[in-house]
Structures are given as C-alpha cells and as structure tokens.
Automatic annotation (TrEMBL), chain B:
Belongs to the complex I subunit 2 family. Keywords: Cell membrane, Membrane, NAD, Quinone, Translocase, Transmembrane, Transmembrane helix, Transport, Ubiquinone. Pfam families: Proton_antipo_M. Its main location: membrane. It is a multi-pass membrane protein. The chain crosses the membrane at residues 12-33, 40-60, 80-98, 110-127, 133-152, 164-186, 206-230, 242-262, 274-294, 301-323, 329-355, 376-394, 414-433, 454-476. NDH-1 shuttles electrons from NADH, via FMN and iron-sulfur (Fe-S) centers, to quinones in the respiratory chain. The immediate electron acceptor for the enzyme in this species is believed to be ubiquinone. Couples the redox reaction to proton translocation (for every two electrons transferred, four hydrogen ions are translocated across the cytoplasmic membrane), and thus conserves the redox energy in a proton gradient. It is found in: Cell membrane; Endomembrane system; Membrane. The keyword Cell membrane applies. This is NADH-quinone oxidoreductase subunit N. It catalyses: a quinone + NADH + 5 H(+)(in) = a quinol + NAD(+) + 4 H(+)(out). It comes from Salinicola acroporae.
Amino acid sequence: MTLVWLILIPFIGGLLCWQAERFGDQAPRWIALGTMLLELALVLGLWVSSDFQLPAEGAASVWTLEWQADWIPRFGIQLHLAIDGLSLLMIALTGLLGAMAVVCSWKEIVRRVGFFHLNLLWILGGVVGVFLAIDLFLFFLFWEMMLVPMYFLIALWGHSGSQGSSRIGAATKFFIYTQASGLLMLIAILGLVFAHHGATGEYTFAYADLLNTPLSETTAWWLMLGFFVAFAVKLPVVPLHGWLPDAHAQAPTAGSVDLAGILLKTAAYGMLRFALPLFPEASQAFAPVAMTLGLIGIFYGAILACGQQDLKRLIAYTSISHMGFVLIGIYAGTELALQGVVALMVAHAFSAAGLFILSGQLYERLHTRDMRQMGGLWGRIRGLPGFALVFVAASLGLPGTANFVGEFMVMFGAFGVAPWVVVIASAGLILAAVYSLFIMQRVYYGPPVEETPLAGLDRRETILLFGIVALVVFFGVYPQPLLDTSAGAMQVVQQSVQQAAAMTGGVQ
Amino acid sequence: MSDVANHGVLTTLLAISPLILVCLTVIVVMLSIAWKRNHALSAILTAVGLNAALLALLFGWTLGSVDVTSVLVVDDLSRFGGVLVLMSTLACVTLAHHYLEGYEGPRDEFYLLLTSAAAGGLVLVSARHMTTLFFGIELLSMPLFGMLAYTFRDRGALESGIKYMVLSAAATAFLLFGMALLYAVTGTLDFAELGAALSARGSDPWLLAGAGLLLVGLAFKLSIVPFHLWTPDVYQGGPGPATTFLATASKVAVFLVLLRLFQSTLAFHENWWHDLLGFIAVITMLVGNLLALTQNDLKRLLGYSSIAHFGYLLVALVVNQGLAVETVGIYLVTYVLTTLGAFGVVTLVSSPYIATGGTADASPLHHYRGLFWRRPYLTAVMTVSMLSLAGIPFTAGFIGKFYIIGVGVEAHRWWLVGSVVVGSAIGLYYYLRVMVTLFLHEPGMQRRDATHDWAERAGGMVVLGVATLVILLGLYPTPMINWVNWVAG
C-alpha cells in the first residue's frame, strides 16, 4: 500500500491546498510543503529499509515492492505498481524538487495560491505515477495526465513573454507536442498488446508479460519508434524540442524547476524502463541513429544557448545539450554508461533546478530575464552571484560536482561501444564551458547597468540554495549511494541489451 | 425469427412498453396543457413519464431479442440506445425547465415536442425495416424544427430552425429515393432481406445507388463531411436545451440505426465500400477539427467538434469487425455524457432565457472568460467535459478514444489511426483554448453568469452528476465496458 500512498499523497495534498485557500494565502503553501516533505520522508524511509540488489536468479519478482489490483479485466488491465532502485531514486528526486518548487514560489505566486498548489502537486502526483506504473495502460494514463496541470501552470501563472510569444501559446505548444507524441505511444502500446493477443490469445498490458512478446523485425521496429518518439519529445531530442524553450521561458519558476528537474527525466526513465527492454533488438539496431541524434542535441543546444538573450531560454537550451549526453548513455547500453545516465539525471535535476531558481530570484528583483539589462550584478546582490557560480560550474561539469561524475561515466562507458561518438561529444563539453561562462560574464560581471544595490537573499532563499549546493557537491564527491541503489535496475537493462547484441551478432 | 412464436403478447407489450409510455406521456402532457397551463407541472409530468419509460426499459432487460411486429425489434442494442436517448431527453427536460423560466411565450409545448422527438429516437433504435427507419427519423426531426425555433423572436433560433428544416427535407428526399431504388430492385424493405439481396447481387448499380443515397440521407443527420454545412449555424442559433437534444439523443439514435444497417447488409463488407467510408471518416475528422480551430463561439465550436467526433466513430464502422460494435457502444456512451456536460453548462449559463434580437444564449466564448473565479464548480464541469472531448486520461472520453485507436490498430487501418492522432492533436488546440478562457481573468469584458442557485436546480444537479460520471468512468470504466460488451455480445 505504500506505493499507492506515494501516488495519492500529492493528489490529496493538492485538493487540501485548493480548499485551504479560504484560510489565507499561507495555508496552501504550508500544506503543499508538508505534503512534499511527507512524500520525501516516505521515499527515504523506503530507501533506507529496502535492499536493491537484484534477487537471485529465478526469484519470483525483480521488484523491491509491488502492488496490484484488477482494474479493467476486459483487456487484462491492472493497477500494477512496482518500485526498484531506479524508480525509487526518481521518486525521491520528485519529492525533493517538489518541495523546492513549493519553497521557491513562496513569494513569486501571489494570486490564486490554492489553485496554483493544486496544479503543482498534481503534476508531481502524475510524475510519481509514471515512475511507479508497470502496467502499460496505467503508465500511459499518468504520462498524459500530468500534462494538464502543467498546462495550467504555464498558461495561468506564466510570464507573458518577450517578443510577443504568449504564455498560453507556449502552454498549448507544450501540450500538443507531448499529447500527439503520446498518442503515437498509445498506438505502439496497442500494437504490442494486439501482437501479444495474436500470439497467446489473451489481452494483457502487464510489463512482465509483454516483455517476451514474439515480434517480427519490422513490427518491433515500428513499435519501438512509437515509444521512442513519445520519449524523444519529452527528453527532448532535436528535432522534436520545439516546445521546450518557449515552455521554460514562459513558465513560472516552480514550473521550470519541475519541467527541467523531473518531467524531462520521465522520458529518460521511459526509455530505460520500456523502450530498451521491450524492443532490445530494434533498439540495438536503432542505437547509432539515437546516438547521432544525441550528438546533434549536444551541439545544437550548446550553440543556441550561446546566442540567447533570455536567461531562462538559455538554461532551457543547455538542458537540451545535457539530455544529448543522457541519450548517448542510454543507447550505449553498457552498465557503466547506464549508471552514468542515472547520475547525470540526478545531477542535472539539481543544477538545472538551481539555475532556474536563481533566474526566478533575479526576475523577482529585476523584473526582467533579458541578459542585456543585467550585468555587473556581482556587486549589487549579496549572496546570489556566489551560488550562481557554483551552479554554473556544475552545469559545465567541473570535477567535484555530480554532473562531472555523470558525464564522465557516460563517456567512459560509451567509449568501448562507440568511440567516435564519445570523441565528438567531448568537444561539446568545451561549448558547455563557453555558455556557462557567458552566463557569469553577462549577468554578474561587466559594467553594471545601475549602481543601486538590490535586496540580498533572505533566509528562505539561502537555505534553499544551500541545500541544492550541498547535494551537488555531496554526490559529486561521493556518488556511491546513488550508484548502489540503481545498480540492480541498470543490470536488468544492460542484460537485455547484451542479449540482443549477442543475438544480432550471432545472426551476422 | 423463430423467436416470434415463443413470445406471448405480454412479453411483446413489455418489450415495447418504453415507447408506449413515452407516447402516453405526450398525450398526458398535452391534455394537462389543454386543461391548465402550468410550467412546473408540465416539466414534472414529462420527467415522470420518461422515468417510467426508463424503468420499463430496465424491466425488460432480460427479455433478449423480441420481435414486435415485423418492423420493430427490441433487442439489447435497441435497449442500449433507448437508455441513452431517454437519459439525454431527461437531462434536456431538467435543463429546459430552468431555461424556459425567462421565456415570455408559451413554455409548456417544448416538453411535448421534446417527448415526441424522444419517441422518434426510440422507434429508430428498434428499427429493422425501412418504414420504421423513415418513420423514426421523421418523428425525431419534425419536433426538432419546432424546438430549435422555439424562441422564434430571436433571429438566431428562427434561422436555426429553418435551416434544420430545409436540411431535413433534403435528407428525407435522399432517403426516400434510396429506399425506392432498393425496393425497385429487391422488392423488400426489410433490413435482413435487403442484406441478403445486396450480397447476392452486390454489383447491381441500382442497388448500389440506392444504398448510397440512403447513406447520404443518414450522413446529413450525422453531419458527416461533406454533408455537414448546416451544423454550426444550427448549433449556434438553437436554444440550449434543443441543441443539447440534437447533439445527443438525435445523433445517437441515427448512428445506431446506421450501425444496424451495417450489421445486416453484407454488401457493405466489400472492400471498396470500406475504402470510401474510410476516406469519408478521415476528411470528417480533419475538416471538423480544422474548422473548429478559429471559432470564437462556443456553440459553433462544439458543433464542429461533434462533426470530428462522428468522424472518429466512423472508424469503428469502417472496420466493422472485432471490437467494432463494442467501440461504437463505448464511444456513444462517453460522447453523450461529455456532450451533455458541455451543453449543460452552456445552457445553465444562458438560463434563464433573456430576450434579445440576435442569439439569446451565452454562446460567444468571451462570455465565459474567468468563469472559474465566479462559478468554480460549474467551470469544473466544463473543464472535465473539454478534457473528455479531447480524450485526456482519467476522463470517460479517453476510454472512447482508446477503443477507437484500439479498433483501428487491431484491423491494421494505419491511415485511419494516423488521422485520429492528427485530428486529436488539432482538436487539443481549441479545447485547450476554451479551457483556459474559463480560468483567465480580464475585467471589463461582457460576460454572463449562471444564476447563483444553479447547483440546487435539477438541471445543475444533472450536469454535476454527468461530470462526476465522466470522471468515474474514466477512473473505473469496467462497469461500462461490461455492459457494452454484453450488449455487443
């Protein structure tokens, strides 16, 4: 039942926030914070009390914890939740970033506070559902469901943006991109289910049953593409990234934190959990294409980041660049690379969240995100630029930060499989240094626009930022807890990739 | 047909009793109006009659297939259709009661027309012969002219009524011509016998022409492209309750008779029919969704969206195997619930009726700006309806869309599945636009509100109930699936 509560807590908390608005603006905020901390405590408790080693060969279940109930027997659809090391890490991340999102919008959101927190918590609930569901129907439901509150978050509390692009436009674009690609995934899921029905005569959406569906090569290829496109839009992979810069630029800070920190991770999670294990041979054949797309993403994101004037757009493009590394790591398929992907996802969640929170704080003080109107802020704001330096350093992958661990492991792990990809990708690291230093130079150094000092960080902001910095450095120095937790789950993925490689190798 | 002998008079009467009760209701309400005009009394009598019919329908649930004369058959499918028609009619009665309170003219006759149209719907879902098909369609359509033009001092309503009348006349002409051709070749008007004749002499051009004309007539009623041109104007102009009936009960009944035709006439199983129908389905989805994009009028928008939805539904007819019948059933249930929710809110916001020169209803989208901050629960209903129309998970609409895509994937009709995806993606744009309008707050705009006590009125409760049902069926669709599965059996 713990797993059910993990999903229900945010939803119930959201409803409470909505109703608590009548007791004043503070009530929803505290309830939301309490909800997320409760969620976090629950996950951490699970983390401490569970063992994430792979069970011995032939054990009944590969999951640490499982819960299921009949739902739609007509199609063999079940409410089937399960957790392993990977999902646990992701849910812990969700809880943590959720709490941060609540804290960072404490002063930013002043209108319709209750409804805002309803949406915020429902996004998180949907995300937790995505990480827990292992019935494909249920997974799809959560996958699509989390779009609706995100849409509201951007459309109603977003900033009306620069250059005439409206927040409603950005929200709609986000929604249509992800929903349409999601429908492609639904088609692929149904194709898989009907293929399984044709082979065995029974309908099922259960992950474990569908894993062993016999598929012809072309069918597997098309179905794999259906999954890949849905995940690629969310990750995002260039050329399916069109929604991301707009959505980030217009979203409120909490929305950006959730979007970069968690929502992008659902895509990587989906690839690791579904796209690779369900279609190992097709994925193996697709790997060169995927890695090329990853490379394009690294360079495209980095180069466009260098040319941005809008701070949040810039950070959004750096996300595209980082996700290129994730994509390469996933399709390299070695255990080291896959573990690196996990570390990189966690690290990117922290560094991107930190940068977005900082740009939100700058916006609260300067009422602009245009970097041309910034400059010389080092002397004008107490405290904030120092934190910015740390996150920028993390973003460029400086050793000692968690990002370095992740990127290094991805590159190291992928080198044996695709050396040239790694060689080219490492050139992308230089571009990362370029755009990171651009941020520092344009925003914090140079001649100041005005001389008047701005409000320094208050206690809430300082604690929040300190927390993230501590995590970035801690996992940069000692990533072992992360890696231990996800090792079992990653071994499963790696084995399926290996088997596929062995089989295709055998055919040749 | 061997069943016929086994059924006694009582069984037959019980099977047809819903129709009899609805007709009785018409007469009782008419007499009551003749005796004394009382708006509340008329509404209550109508509601009681319809509920009795609904109960009778449930009592006859286990009878199986009963032939009532050689032109009507009461089977699971017609009971299924009957439930949908009667439920929508009941919802329209409750909405109409609130709506007509502000109308200065005679109010009671609306219920007469509504009930007669419901009787037409009941005949239609039981039809297994061309005569009953024709009779049902006319009985369904004629009262609708009156209902649509009921508030005839409004230009919009009058225009809507007249447009629908002209369209219906055209559709009837096609229908009759088609039937005449079929009869001329085969000498029969019974669906099953026609089907046999069609499969025996499927390539006879006169037969094909007859079947084609018949389909065109029905396509007019379902507003399938290219016979959809009347839809937006009629939807926009008609008074709320009448449009609600047109969008729900009327369309369901006509679609079910179309399904029955498809089931019994084997000629439609030939390939090129399916390709043609598939093409029509694709353009219906695309045209409906594309035209809805730029609408600034909620009722027009819903009109175009209903065109698109019937495009999706056609996918099931094109496939016509495997899950097809089940899909039609599920989709119709979800569509009716969702549409009742959406039009219910429109009607509630427009209630009570206010006389104006143009269109009286709160139909322009900007009337709904910021509705959430004034009527949160009513807006929640509208939001749920929009999400359900867009097919977002955890609403009933998603289950419908799931079935449509499923039936297409199962039959490997990739073009159709692709168009459903494209259509849904386009559709999202305008559904989201409506949704976000409800939540925006821009003071100084012209706007309308539902009355403060909307939730305590029957119409309000029905609308809230419908929205709850949409959510519940989205969360736990098993009862609906079991029911429809049993009907499709």
